[in-house]
TrEMBL record:
The keyword Signal applies. Residues 34-165, 182-302, 338-459, 475-593 form the CUB domain. One of its GO terms (cellular component) is plasma membrane. This is Suppressor of lurcher protein 1. Pfam families: CUB. It comes from the Eukaryota. PANTHER family: CUBILIN (PTHR47537). InterPro entries: CUB_dom (IPR000859), Non-NMDA_GluR_Accessory (IPR053207), Sperma_CUB_dom_sf (IPR035914). PROSITE patterns: CUB.
Length: 633
């Protein structure tokens, strides 16, 4: 690697390094231009600090310094930068000043030795926001190479902590299938545990970039399998899972022929899936050149809801966790008519009413209604009647008045997604997963306040009633010109707000000489241009291919009627929402036209860039309204 001239450390600096880094001894450098400082766990120092020379003063020029961390065979190294300020001369951090990370140290020589042929795993430069929260080695050694060029600057370098941790804390608690790299079996039989943990390969370090792992779960005949993904950190971004090389698929059965419950990618926390039967398959595929940290999850073999082992308290704690405990002991009292639990095992649809409906509900009413689905089921609520007491002071707020609130599970916590009060009939509500909770507070009462009547259903089609649903995706619908030459399609739960953490795909297949024309009559997708993750935007995307198509870009915000037209006989529409705010989605008409037929020119696609800019400027007032709503939500 031979960079720069030989580094010369003063006696004072060496003393400072000894004092600040706790465990320092002589090490083998890459070549004479690099000095080496070693940190080992052999002296009982499981943690400590490290820093760049002269920190917090600007670091010296023309240096090459190796920080070598050597753990015990059963340990891995955790590094966390509490401060980072290294001059950024190159986007990839390959030139100028940088910190390079080596954690697959191989070859002859003492543990932790590297040479000019060693491959570094990643390079860091810039400020604190440019480095990950933590770095983990896959094995018991890790080396940082800190190199500075001759260019003068006032950057102060870095300060960090290291920790030697037991890698056995991250072992998958299943039985590895012989002859495989990362396939596991989990079964509920005999004295085997009813729950445990599973991880991606090498977690919490980055996973390999060419691997496929299968995790097979087999419960007792009437049991269910629940998996809670505490953390998913694959490729960064908010790109559709259909275009991701690193992806997690969950199948509701023994093999990949079973329906797909979930397709997970990018970065997610607190996501939960529940099987409809005793088997589940989780398949993790990684083919990207930029692997992430992977996933950490727990599995649970759950007894059927009508068994004595699945009493109400236990089911609630397993399903919603500690979030429900804050709501008080009334939650578990599901025996009264005011506190009710609805499970899709009992019925797929029914009716829910407030106490004494259609008569007035009594004063000081406080009720909880919990819904538990399974597989890819979502809970959908349709309001048939709604009339709560509200004073005539003209206030539009639902604060401190009789109200009905809807909660879903977001990042492992209960989050309010809707609050209703007064007499306006609410739009439909849909959960973001197989669980939903309603809380009704009716402190006032009058003979005119008859409460509410709600139809509930456990649906697998996301409330999308057109097209043919594909079982190989959680939410995907096909529209063939051979079946219908025109029709309509809409976002999930239309005309109500779409659910959070949801991706749906719409595939349009025309004849050999046809193209696809879409006319959007309603469009309200939460976000601001350019509809990216940095602004926490939901979006709708169009493509003439299954892969990315930069011709159209992303659409979000509130828009008037507009048209989009394909260039081929295939067209794909992707809708994706995050776990933040939501809108009422979209409604659109589709039509298969002959390629030679003319239609009104679509906006945002055929128009020149100058006209596109003007059109986007027209939307600025709408965007400003959206930002106001997002800031004061």
């Amino acid at each position: 690697m031979g960079h720069g001239s030989a580094m010369k450390l003063s006696a004072t600096l060496l003393v400072l390094l000894h004092l600040s880094m706790h465990v320092v001894d002589e090490g083998q450098a890459v070549n004479p231009s690099c000095s080496c400082i070693r940190f080992t766990s052999t002296n009982g120092k499981e943690r400590g600090t490290f820093s760049s020379p002269d920190y917090p003063l600007p670091y010296p020029r023309d240096i090459c310094l190796l920080y070598t961390f050597i753990a015990a065979p059963h340990q891995i190294i955790e590094l966390m930068f509490t401060d980072f300020d290294v001059y950024k001369d190159d986007v990839e951090c390959n030139q100028g000043d940088y910190v390079k990370i080596y954690w697959e140290v191989q070859g002859p020589g003492p543990p932790g030795a590297i040479n000019e042929r060693s491959a570094w795993s990643r390079a860091l430069c810039g400020n604190r926001a440019d480095v990950p929260p933590a770095l983990y080695s896959p094995g018991p050694s890790l080396i940082l190479e800190f190199y500075t060029s001759s260019r003068q600057n006032n950057n102060t370098g870095f300060l960090g902590t290291y920790n030697f941790i037991d890698r056995r804390l991250f072992e998958t608690e299943g039985v590895q299938i012989p002859g495989t790299e990362c396939d596991y079996q989990f079964s509920r039989s005999g004295n085997r545990p009813t729950h445990g943990r599973l991880y991606s390969p090498r977690y919490p370090s980055i996973y390999p970039n060419n691997v496929r792992c299968s995790y097979h779960f087999h419960a007792r005949p009437k049991d269910r399998v629940k998996i809670v993904f505490e953390e998913i950190s694959l490729q960064k971004g908010d790109i559709s899972c259909l275009r991701r090389a690193d992806i997690i698929k969950v199948f509701d059965g023994r093999d990949t022929n079973a329906p797909t419950i979930a397709m997970l990618c990018n970065e997610i926390t607190g996501y939960e899936v529940l099987s409809t039967g005793p088997s589940m398959l989780l398949q993790f595929t990684a083919n990207s050149a930029s692997p992430g940290q992977g996933f950490a999850a727990t599995y649970h073999f759950q007894p059927p809801p009508d068994s004595t082992a699945a009493d109400s308290d236990r089911l609630l704690k397993l399903s919603f966790g500690k979030a429900f405990e804050s709501l008080g002991p009334e939650v578990s009292a599901t025996t009264s008519s005011c506190h009710q639990e609805f499970n899709s095992d009992g019925t797929k649809h029914g009716t829910l009413t407030s106490p004494h409906y259609p008569l007035a509900y009594p004063p000081n009413t406080h009720c909880h209604y919990e819904f538990f689905g399974r597989g890819k089921e979502r809970i959908r609520l349709l309001f048939q009647d709604f009339l709560l007491y509200k004073s005539s002071d003209g206030s539009l707020s639902c604060t401190n008045v009789d109200s009905l609130q809807a909660f879903v599970n977001v990042d492992g916590r209960l989050e309010n997604v809707a609050t209703f009060c007064g007499v306006d009939l609410p739009k439909p509500i849909m959960s973001n997963g197989p669980k939903l909770m309603l809380e009704f507070r009716g402190t006032q009462s009058s003979r005119h306040s008859r409460g509410f009547k709600i139809s509930y259903s456990f649906v697998e089609n996301f409330g999308i009633t057109t097209g043919r649903q594909l079982k190989e995706f959680p939410c995907a619908f096909v529209y063939n010109s051979s079946e219908a030459h025109n029709g309509t399609f809409a976002s999930p739960n239309s005309p109500g707000p779409y659910p959070r953490d949801t991706e749906c795909s719409y595939f349009f297949h025309g004849g050999q000489t046809e193209k696809v024309h879409l006319h959007f009559t309603h469009f309200d997708v939460e976000g601001v241009l350019p509809c990216e993750a940095v602004s926490a935007s939901d979006y709708v995307e169009f493509s003439n291919y299954m892969t990315e198509d930069n011709r159209y870009g992303r659409y979000c915000g509130q828009m008037k009627e507009f048209h989009v037209e394909s260039e081929r006989n295939f067209f794909k529409v992707t809708f994706r929402s995050n776990d933040r705010l939501d809108g009422t989605g979209f409604k659109a008409m589709y039509q298969f036209l002959e390629a030679t037929d003319e239609y009104q020119a679509p906006i945002f696609d055929k128009a020149p860039k100058s006209l596109r800019l003007v059109a986007e400027l027209v939307l600025l007032s709408v965007i400003a309204t959206h930002w106001h709503r997002r800031l004061y939500h």
